[in-house]
Specification:
With 133 residues, the chain is α+β, with helices and mostly antiparallel strands. It is built from 4 helices and 7 strands, in the order E-E-H-E-E-H-E-E-E-H-H.
């Protein structure tokens, strides 16, 4: 997408690749997506293998997401949606042609602050160190 833009930087929200999250704000000024939410993981995805199941509960703290209008483009490319929220909205993407390329809308590093290391962070560190699963 040569003209990809972010609504936060002035692009019209209906045309921007990244838009305000389509959910109610919990309170004025707070992130739209906040707290633990379920993420359903796609079969045969790296995310599903890393988490060892078809879903995870992850900590969100953000106000933007992928414009659902463009989600089918990702689903037909090497950068595919591999995790979704309860309404099918993209929450995880991964580049299938790379050894380890996973991007999340949630913050897996926050789990460690609660004494629960996130499997995605562990897998990333193992991949960076060249350690096979």
């Amino acid at each position: 997408m040569a003209d990809a833009a972010h609504a936060e930087y002035g692009a019209p929200p209906d045309e921007a690749l990244i838009t305000p999250a389509a959910c109610a704000m919990p309170e004025p000024g707070a992130p739209r997506l906040n707290g633990k939410q379920r993420v359903r993981l796609m079969p045969d995805s790296l995310a599903e293998r890393v988490y060892g199941g078809s879903e995870t509960f992850a900590e969100f703290h953000c106000s933007n997401e992928l414009n659902r209008r463009y989600q089918p483009l990702f689903e037909r490319s090497d950068l595919r949606v591999s995790g979704v929220g309860d309404e099918g909205e993209a929450r995880v993407v991964e580049l299938t042609s790379a050894a380890f390329y996973v991007a999340t809308l949630y913050l897996p590093q926050l789990a460690a602050a609660q004494g629960e290391p996130d499997p995605l962070i562990d897998a990333y560190v193992r991949a960076a160190a060249g350690v096979a699963d």
